[in-house]
Design a protein that fits this description.
Elements lengths: L2 H20 L1 H6 L15 H17 L7 H30 L4 E11 L11 H21 L2 H11 L1 H5 L16 H11 E5 L6 E7 L2 H59 L4 H31 L7 H25 L10 H36 L4 E7 L12 H30 L1
Antiparallel strand pairs: 1-3, 1-4, 2-3
Helix pairs in contact: 4-13, 5-9, 9-12, 10-11, 10-12
């Protein structure tokens, strides 16, 4: 036997081993039908004889049983009973045998508000603000019902901790007394609940206790306190509106008073009641003096044309008259427009400018005062009516039938929950096992 034949035999044995490694799953399924490799009289028979028992034992140890279905079905039924049926049965036993009946009282109300503009077009923008405030008041009421202040008030008035801890309630659902107020608030929020309809703004109040009378008493107390809160909100809004209107009236009156005092000081300082009328009178006098001056100049020209000497008495009289008229015209012109402070007569231009500014200020102050007084009167009329109020259109009524707990629905929900949980867990475990295989 040459070296080439020996190499070929070794390659042939290596390929057989590689094939055996790749076909381990087939060997597991066909472990009982594996037939030995016949190679009598060949040089590699000793190596195959050593490998064959090892492969046989490995395939036999990992062989799959013939009928795994019965064991798998039993395991599924057992797991389903333990993880689904057993907890569902325990909870059903609690609900039907031990859970106490609880009575629910429902009532419906809404926070209403009158949106009435104050009369001016500019006040129309406040209508949307009032409507937004009405929606905000609805949320204020619901938050107040779930607040610690409401619980403390109900505890003082009704002793709700005793109502929630009655002997009729079971161990898991009743409240245990002598605990901090925060625990009572948590229990209150679970048994006294509110729901807001976002479209209509209607508030639904639901109260759940172990006694119908307790549910009715708590519901009535909550509605009463909520109505007092809404009335307080409305009263505060009205008082704020009246206070703001009074402040505006006081400010406008003070401004109008200051405008009148400024006019009075102006008249005392200038010695003029109305500068415009005084200026008109001064201008009329000035025009009259101009006419007299023209007439005197004409007379002077006539006398001079008659060959009289300038020293003549008549000419001297006319000249003196012209000088006096010129002096008067100069004084009147200076009183109207001159800035010479040495002149005792007031400057009409400055006086008119200052007077007109004071007049404008008085007019504005007068208009503002009239508007503020009108707004105050309207605020008083609006305050005489309740702008925001609580409208209860479904009052609380005494229940006769226990609607909680909903035993059938709760058992179905519990069964579905445990079934879904068990299904997901089983699929996860099966996936992990299949991946390991």
């Amino acid at each position: 036997m040459n070296a080439d034949d020996e190499v070929k035999r070794r390659d042939r044995i290596g390929s057989v081993l590689a094939f055996a490694r790749r076909t381990v799953p087939d060997l597991r399924r066909n472990a009982e039908t594996i037939e030995p490799i016949e190679a009598p009289g060949k040089p590699g028979s000793r190596v195959l004889a050593r490998i064959r028992p090892m492969l046989w034992r490995r395939a036999a140890t990992r062989s799959i049983p013939d009928a795994p279905q019965p064991r798998l079905a039993v395991q599924l039924v057992r797991n389903f009973s333990i993880f689904v049926l057993l907890p569902t049965a325990v909870i059903a036993l609690y609900l039907f045998a031990f859970a106490a009946d609880q009575y629910i009282v429902e009532s419906r109300f809404a926070v209403r508000g009158e949106v009435e503009p104050m009369g001016d077009v500019s006040m129309g923008q406040f209508s949307g603000l009032i409507q937004k405030n009405n929606s905000q008041d609805t949320h204020i009421v619901t938050h107040y019902i779930a607040s610690q202040a409401m619980v403390e008030d109900a505890e003082k008035a009704l002793n709700v901790s005793k109502m929630f801890s009655r002997d009729e309630g079971d161990y898991f659902s009743r409240y245990t007394g002598e605990r901090p107020i925060e625990d009572l608030v948590k229990y209150w929020r679970k048994h006294v609940q509110t729901h807001i309809d976002l479209i209509s703004g209607v508030i639904t109040l639901s109260v759940r206790t172990f006694d119908p009378a307790d549910s009715l008493a708590i519901s009535k107390h909550v509605i009463t306190r909520a109505e007092l809160l809404v009335n307080d909100i409305s009263e505060r809004a009205q008082n704020d509106m009246l206070a703001h209107s009074r402040e505006e009236v006081e400010k406008s009156e003070a401004r109008l008073r200051n405008a009148h005092l400024a006019l009075n000081r102006f008249r005392n300082r200038w010695g003029i009641i109305d500068p415009a009328k005084s200026a008109t009178a001064t201008y009329t006098t000035l025009m009259s003096l101009q006419k007299d001056k023209i007439k005197a100049e004409n007379d002077l020209q006539v006398l001079r044309a008659s060959s009289l000497d300038d020293k003549a008495r008549s000419i001297q009289t006319i000249l003196a008259s012209l000088a006096a008229i010129d002096q008067q015209i100069k004084q009147l012109r200076d009183s109207l427009t001159s800035d010479n402070m040495a002149i005792k007569a007031p400057n009409a231009a400055e006086a008119i400018l200052e007077y007109e500014g004071l007049q404008v200020e008085r007019t504005i102050a007068n208009r503002l005062n009239e508007s503020a007084v009108m707004m105050l009167e309207r605020a008083r009329i609006a305050a005489s009516r309740q702008q925001v109020y609580l409208a209860t259109f479904v009052p609380p009524a005494l229940p006769h039938l226990s609607l909680y707990p909903r035993r059938g629905e709760d058992v179905f929900v519990v069964f579905f929950f445990f079934f879904a949980l068990w299904s997901c867990g089983s699929l996860l475990v099966a996936g992990i096992k299949d991946h390991n295989i």
